[in-house]
Amino acid sequence: MRVTIDRLGHLGDGLATVPEGTVFVPGVLPGEVVEGDLNADKLTNVRIVTPSADRIKAPCPHARTCGGCQLQHVADSFVEAWKASIVSSALAAHGLPAPIKGVATSPPHSRRRAVFSARRTKSGVLIGFHARSSVTLVAIPECRLLHPDLMDVVTGLQELAMIGGSRSAELSMTVTRSEAGADVAVTGGKPLDSELRMALARIVEKHQFARLTWEGEVVALRDSPIQRFGRAVVTPPSGAFLQATLEGETALLDAVREALGPQQRVADLFAGSGTFTFPIAEFAEVHSVEGDAAMIQALDKATRNTQGLRRITSETRDLFRRPLQPDELARFSGVVLDPPRAGAEAQTRCLVLSTVPVVAMVSCNPITFARDAGILVSAGYALDWIRVVDQFRWSTHVELVARFSRPS
Ligand SMILES: C[S@@+](CC[C@H](N)C(=O)[O-])C[C@H]1O[C@@H](n2cnc3c(N)ncnc32)[C@H](O)[C@@H]1O
Q1: How far is the centre of ligand 1, averaged over its atoms, from the C-alpha of 338 (Å)?
Q2: How many Cα atoms within 13 Å fall on the side-chain side of residue 354?
C-alpha cells in the first residue's frame, strides 16, 4: 500500500487517511509518501518513497532496533514545532490561546536518570532497553541519550544482574547520576540472603556506586547520592523523582523564577525533595508540600543543614485528596504547581477560590495542563505565557512551564 502521511499522532506515529480509515505508520514524517504492508491499521516494512525535508539520518546507531527513542529520524526544529503544537492543540480544545515563548531542548548525552532492563542469558547478561512495544531487549552501547556517567555504570549493572538475576525474570535497574557515584535501585532480582548481600556490596565497592537498593532495601551505602538544589545538598530517597536532565531542570527553574517574579511568600506544591524550593528560598519564604514522606524528610534534612536561605516550612500531604484550601492559600503571593501526569485539578479548584495573584504551573502532560489551565482562566486568571521544555529529546514527551496571574 502507498500512502501520504498527514500528520504525527501523539505517540509519534505518522497518520495517513485511507478510504477504510486511519493508518498508523512508524518512523515517518508529515508529507512523506511511503509504501508498506498493511497489517490491521498499521503499515509495516515501511519504505520511504518521497522523504520530507525534515528527515535526518538518525544520530544513534541503535535507532532502528531500540524502542527508547521515537523521533531520531526528525530534525530538532521540526520536533520543537511539533511539541509546541501539541500544547497549542490541547489548549485549543478548551478554547484557550497558547502564548508559547520558546522551546528549551536538552542536548544529547544529558539524561541523568534511566531505567535499564536486564536478563540473564546462556552466555551472560543482556542489558539495555526494550525494542518498540516488545519484550525483546536491545543492548545500547552507543546510546546518544544517556549521560556518559550512566553508560559507565553498565558493566557494574551487568555484574549485579549476573549474580542477582535469574534466567526466568527480567531485572529493572533504575540508575540516577549523583556527584557521589551512581544511585542504583533494582527490582525483579533474587531474594536477598547474606551471601548475595555480600556479593552485591563487593560490586558496589568495585564500581564505586554511591548506593544500591535491592527490592526496596538499601543493601549498600558507600556514599550519600547527593543532588544540589540551589545551595542545598539533598539526598533524595532511593528511586525518588528527579528532573531527567540538569539542563531541563535549569530551564524549568529559570521559567518558574521568571513566572513568580519578586514574591515574598511562595507555596511549592508537589515539591519533591526541593528542586524548586531551595532556589526560591534565596528570595522568598517557601512552604513545600509533597505527598511522599521520605522526600519531605530529605528536604527537611537539607533545610536544617543549609545556611543563608529564607524560612522553609514543609508538609507531607496528599494534594489530590486534601488540596490547600483558600484560607491556607491566603498567605501566599505565589504558588508553584508541579503535579504528576494526572495534573492538579483538586488544587486548581481551590486556587480559583483564593486570592493568590501568581501561579507558576509546571506540567508533564499537556492534556491535564489544558484542563487545569481552563479552570484557572474561567475564574479570571490570565494565561500570560508558556515555555515548552524538552528534556526527553527524541521522545514524544512534552513538558512546560506556564505563568498565570490576576490582580491580587
Ligand atoms: C513531577 S514531580 C515534581 C517534583 C518536584 N517539583 C521536582 O521538580 O523535583 C511530582 C511530584 O508530585 C508528588 N505527588 C504525586 N502525587 C501526589 C499527591 N497526590 N499529593 C502530593 N504530592 C504528590 C510526587 O511524589 C512527585 O514528587
Answers
A1: 7
A2: 25
Task: Give the cell for residue 137.
Answer: 531487549
The full length of the chain comes to 408
DSSP 190: P
Kindly report the protein residue whose alpha carbon is nearest to atom 6 of ligand 1: 271
Atom of ligand 1 nearest to the CA of 268: 6
What Cα–Cα distance (Å) separates residue 124 from each residue in 115, 130, 165?
Answer: 20, 18, 11
pLDDT digits (tens, 9 = 90+) for 157-208: 999 999 999 888 999 999 999 999 999 999 999 999 999 999 999 999 999 9
- For the chain, first and last CA: distance in Å? 60
Buried b (16+ CB within 10 A) or exposed e, 353-383: ebebbbbbbbbbbbebbbbbbbbbbeeebeb
What is residue 45's predicted lDDT score, i.e. its pLDDT?
A: 93
Q: Where are the alpha helices (DSSP H) in 309-365?
A: 326-329, 345-351
Alpha helices in 129-268 (DSSP H): 148-152, 154-164, 194-206, 246-260
* Catalytic choice (66, 143, 350, 364): 364
Binned average pLDDT, 10 residues per bin, the chain of 408 residues? 94 92 95 95 95 96 93 96 97 97 97 96 93 91 96 96 92 96 96 96 97 96 97 96 97 98 97 98 98 98 98 98 98 98 98 97 98 98 98 96 91
pLDDT at 354: 96
Cell numbers placing 188: 525483579
In this structure, how many other beta carbons lie within 10 angstroms of the beta carbon of residue 333? 19
- To test the pocket of ligand 1, the residue of 270, 292, 369, 400 to mutate (highest count of ligand atoms within 8 Å of its CB) is 270
| Among protein residues, the one whose CA lies closest to atom 5 of ligand 1 | 272
Q: Which residues, other chains included, contact 327 with Cβ-Cβ below 8 Å and sequence gap of 6+?
A: none
CA–centroid distance, residue 363 to ligand 1 (Å): 11
Among 228, 234, 241, residue to substitute to test ligand 1 (most atoms within 8 Å of Cβ)? 241
- Asked if 369 and 395 touch (Cβ cutoff 8 Å), the reply is no
pLDDT tens digits, 227-249: 999 999 999 999 899 999 999 99
**Cα angle: 222, vertex 227, 79; to 5 degrees:** 125
Is position 66 annotated as part of the catalytic site? no
Please choose, from the candidates 274, 291, 230, 236, the residue with its C-alpha nearest in 3D space to the C-alpha of residue 112: 236
